[in-house]
Write a structure and sequence with these properties.
The chain starts with a strand and ends with a strand. By secondary structure, it is an alpha/beta fold. The chain has a single domain, classed as Rossmann fold.
């Protein structure tokens, strides 16, 4: 299975939210699972003030090193624009959804409401 982790899952792990940590640990330990992150997630993580703490930066780097990163390409940006216009999706969420749609990834998120207007998007709710 191929999953793209939404930013909220990573933030939960940084905050030691036990269910999210257990879920991510389980995913990383499964050899049949590929974990992806959108480049927009890296941007969102750097918006937080805790990023300046060395321990948090180390945790982020550890997570990033275990994931495939989906860069924001012209195709993804175009699809995100379509999603924003057609579904009233916020730009960061539209970029994440477009990354999933164009790479055949299932989105793993706790924020189902941000993505429910995108009918073709495969979503797996997180804890």
């Amino acid at each position: 299975m191929k999953y793209l982790l939404d930013t909220n899952i990573i933030i939960d792990c940084l905050r030691a939210h036990r269910p999210s940590v257990q879920l991510v640990d389980k995913l990383f330990s499964d050899p049949n699972t590929e974990i992806y992150l959108s480049a927009i997630t890296n941007l969102e993580l750097h918006l937080g003030s805790s990023i300046v703490r060395p321990r948090i930066q180390e945790m982020i780097n550890n997570i990033l090193s275990q994931c495939y990163v989906v860069d924001i390409t012209l195709e993804i940006a175009g699809k995100a624009g379509d999603l924003k216009r057609e579904n009233k999706t916020e730009i960061p969420d539209a970029l994440i959804a477009a990354s999933c749609l164009l790479n055949n990834l299932t989105l793993l998120t706790r924020n189902i409401k941000h993505f429910r207007n995108i009918p073709e998007l495969k979503i797996k709710p997180a804890i």
